[in-house]
Amino acid sequence: MRELEINGKTGRSKICIGEKMSNLSKYLVDSPAIVITDENVARHYQQYFPDCERIVLETGEAIKTLDTVRELYERLMGLAADRSVCLIGIGGGIVCDITGFTASTYLRGVRFGYVPTTLLAQVDASVGGKTGVNFSGYKNMIGVFSQPEFVICDPEILMTLPEVELAAGFAEVIKHAAIADAGYFSFLEKNTGNGLEMSLEILEKIIYESVAIKAAIVGRDETEKGERRKLNFGHTFGHAVEKTTGLPHGMAVSIGMMTAAKLSTAKGMLDVADVDRIENLLARFSLPTRLDFDADRVMDAMARDKKREGDHIHFVLLSAIGKAVIAPITLTELSAVLGSNLD
Ligand SMILES: NC(=O)c1ccc[n+]([C@@H]2O[C@H](COP(=O)([O-])OP(=O)(O)OC[C@H]3O[C@@H](n4cnc5c(N)ncnc54)[C@H](O)[C@@H]3O)[C@@H](O)[C@H]2O)c1
Ligand SMILES: [Zn+2]
After folding, report:
1. What is the pLDDT of residue 254?
2. Nearest Cα to 313, choosing from 253, 258, 239?
3. Would you call 308 a catalytic residue per the annotation?
4. Considering only CA atoms, which of 117, 28, 30, 109 is closest in space to residue 76?
5. Looking at the whole model, is its pTM more than 0.85?
């Protein structure tokens, strides 16, 4: 087991990679605990949950709402949970985001920790202290920055994860390597020849390296005033793809990363050979690398992007594999690259 720490203004977070879910009770010293989980995770893993109250949510993005949070407040009050309670979110990013937000607002904030059970939640959603819910059709509109006290990343839990969910996590893993660590990118190239088939040791190393990258960036810029924006690599365009095509997040981000890589080349910043390396690595996980439909609708969505400043949108580009830079891109430059995407 290896540990990483985020020591921020919004709290201190200890992230234990390679710890077993069955050791969770060790982290609960003298606090009454309440587990918040979802139906799938409870079905697979409830035998490992600590002996305490459990609240089992339904699944899917549609439950990530203030209504669910309100129900949780009511359940917590019904259980007479006071300020000494510790809430433990055991599940994917949806359970973690809801648990973190509920814990950070109930009684002005109670203790909380996570056992993330998807790769995406282990390398992304549970790290960095963003909590929140969707509102009025917009993702993550309501929330607070607040660090979980502990995060337990047990790679073995990922063995029951559907392949498409695992691949979605790998989109974020590849993002981390691409923006911050050329050595790690090469490691991924060497050790993921058979796509999702890999040993637990390799998987654990991958989780560790990814969390280390995100934790370091968050440690330097907890509330996203500057460097943390680099974690949006592939996401500016990816969100527009997700919204207009309905593709799952990881797939949309994969297309977004390829688009940003091609924009980097068009700007004379990145070698074409590096774009190919990114494309090849994404393809190993069956992540799409080209937008071959709806390009006009996606461009429309980009044109309406709230973050647009005049005719510019700030994009995360690469000056090399492992080096991200933020640069303004015009809609014309973007549509030129999309044209080459369509060939
Ligand atoms: N807070 C952040 O910084 C941050 C970062 C990235 C994403 N997110 C949020 O994370 C959410 C997506 O998270 P996700 O991709 O983990 O989705 P998810 O929570 O919906 O989990 C995916 C599916 O896998 C199931 N599942 C979870 N663990 C399992 C396991 N071990 N075995 C079998 N099935 C399992 C779940 O029940 C669910 O059906 C989004 O709402 C997104 O906004 C937050
Ligand atoms: Zn993402």
Report:
1. 98
2. 239
3. no
4. 109
5. yes
* Single-letter residue type at 82: D
Delineate the domains of the chain, giving CATH numbers in brackets.
2-160 (3.40.50.1970), 174-341 (1.20.1090.10)
Q: Is residue 235 among the annotated active site residues?
A: yes
C-alpha 329 – ligand 1 centre gap (Å): 31
Give the burial class of 335: count Cβ atoms within 10 A of its Cβ; 0-12 exposed, 13-18 middle, 19 or more buried. Answer: middle
**Token pair for residue 103?**
């814990």
Atom 7 in ligand 1: which residue has the minimum CA distance? 125
pLDDT tens-digit map of 153-205 = 999 999 999 999 999 999 999 999 999 999 999 999 999 988 889 999 999 99
Report the C-alpha gap between 34 and 65 in whole angstroms. Answer: 20
Annotated catalytic residue: which of 64, 205, 214, 262? 214
In the set 175, 176, 228, 230, the catalytic residue is: 228
Which of the residues 175, 205, 230, 239 is marked catalytic? 239
**Cα 249 to averaged position of ligand 2 atoms, centre (Å):** 6
* Catalytic site includes residue 232: yes
